[in-house]
Specification:
The complex is a heterodimer of chains A (180) and B (183). Chain A is α+β, with helices and mostly antiparallel strands and 180 residues long. In chain A, 38% of the residues lie in helices and 14% in strands. Chain A has six helices and three strands. Chain A has a three-stranded antiparallel β-sheet, with helices on one face. In chain A, strand 2 and strand 3 form a beta hairpin. The radius of gyration of chain A is 27 Å and the shape is elongated. Chain B has nine helices and no strands. With 183 residues, chain B is mostly helical. Chain B starts with 11 loop residues before the first helix and ends with a helix. Classes of the chains: A alpha+beta (180), B mainly alpha (183). Chains A and B meet through helix 1, helix 2, helix 3 and strand 1 of A and helix 3, helix 5, helix 6, helix 7 and helix 9 of B.
Chain lengths: 180, 183
């Protein structure tokens, strides 16, 4: 007898689970599943996982960045890197704008804040580490105001950049880019 | 030799057995058993932190539902059934609460999108180990919403065989979950 035709071993909970899924019922609302769980409570996690798998299978595919949006991501990366570079050049290690007065705490600054220091003479800083994160945003998947949502059918967000200068100073550059 | 005393229909014990007070006493006395059962039910799930709440909800629901229990029957199986339903309700509601919280957040939920992409990637990786026919049937059934009858016609298989393939595919996914959880 082939594997496909061999009968499955009897298992009351499994049978109830499969029947619920075949009928597209939520196993957590299925009387037979719940009754079987009363006899085998340790298998509740198994029911939860199987239910999650079924939901994940049925869920619409999340939007992935298209080739065009990947190109836009690279453009955003360049922009953000440039902004971070400007920030480091303009911020002196001892007087950079920071939030919080805790001594020894890493400085956190926005590009705009750092840019306000533009008129000061500052030593050039060399970027030692630069982390940038990009995430695709599905159309309408973010709480963009309605007037802007129409203008941004698809957009990318530059979440944040952490820049560590050669002297160990850390700057967190936060910016958001909406790119059609 | 005197017979052991048994309450009769007319005795005060029997009359009291069906009262709300007697029911409350039985429910309270069963609390340790309910707690132990809830621990078995939820102890190895993401809801392990909610065991106390599930026990309390179970007892509260049991007190409100005295009319649905025959006072002459054991109370623990009845309480186990209630406990399972309470846990299932929380598991369903937990997801909805999380979704509500995410949509109510004023800041964009970039992490939520990334998590969904990660979950889908993970699922695709697990699907890749299934036999081609099982994978095809599973995706057609769940993702495309095709019926068992449609799939049976399309693949020239009995409906029972289609169901069997679906069951095996789900079992295989679950087995992968179990293996990965152990490692």
């Amino acid at each position: 007898m082939s594997e496909a035709l061999r009968p499955l071993p009897h298992d009351a909970l499994d049978a109830a689970l499969q029947e619920a899924l075949d009928a597209r019922r939520d196993p957590l609302e299925d009387e037979a599943v719940l009754a079987a769980l009363a006899e085998e409570p340790e298998r509740f996690g198994e029911v939860l996982r199987l239910r999650e798998s079924a939901r994940a299978l049925a869920a619409p595919s999340p939007v992935r960045p298209s080739r065009r949006s990947r190109a836009a991501a690279v453009a955003a990366l360049v922009l953000a890197a440039a902004a971070a570079g400007v920030a480091l050049r303009l911020a002196r290690p001892d007087d950079r704008p920071s939030r919080g007065d805790t001594a020894g705490a890493p400085a956190v600054a926005n590009v705009a804040d750092v840019g306000a220091e533009a008129d000061r003479a500052a030593p050039r800083a060399e970027v030692r580490e630069l982390f940038l994160a990009f995430e695709p945003v599905p159309p309408g998947g973010r709480p963009t105001p309605p007037s802007r949502r129409a203008a941004h059918g698809s957009s990318l967000v530059v979440r944040s950049s952490t820049v560590t200068a050669i002297d160990g100073t850390k700057l967190e550059v936060t910016s958001q880019q909406h790119i059609r | 030799m005197p017979l052991p005393h048994r309450p009769t229909a007319a005795s005060p014990e029997a009359e009291r057995a069906g009262t709300p007070e007697a029911h409350a006493e039985r429910v309270a006395a069963a609390e340790p058993a309910v707690r132990a059962f809830a621990g078995r039910l939820l102890g190895r799930t993401p809801f392990a932190q909610e065991i106390d709440d599930v026990v309390q909800d179970t007892l509260a629901r049991a007190l409100r539902s005295a009319h649905s229990l025959d006072a002459s029957r054991p109370i623990e199986p009845w309480l186990r059934g209630i406990c399972v339903r309470v846990a299932a309700d929380r598991a369903r509601g937990g997801r909805e609460r999380l979704a509500d919280d995410a949509s109510a957040a004023s800041e964009p939920s970039i992490e939520g999108d990334a998590d969904r992409v990660d979950a889908r990637d993970e699922l695709e990786r697990r699907l890749a180990v299934l036999a081609p026919l099982q994978r095809e049937l599973l995706l057609a059934f769940h993702r495309e919403g095709r019926s068992v009858a449609e799939l049976a016609r399309e693949h020239a298989l009995p409906e029972g065989t289609v169901k069997s393939h679906l069951h095996r595919a789900r079992r295989a996914l679950r087995a992968i979950d179990d293996r990965e959880e152990r490692t």
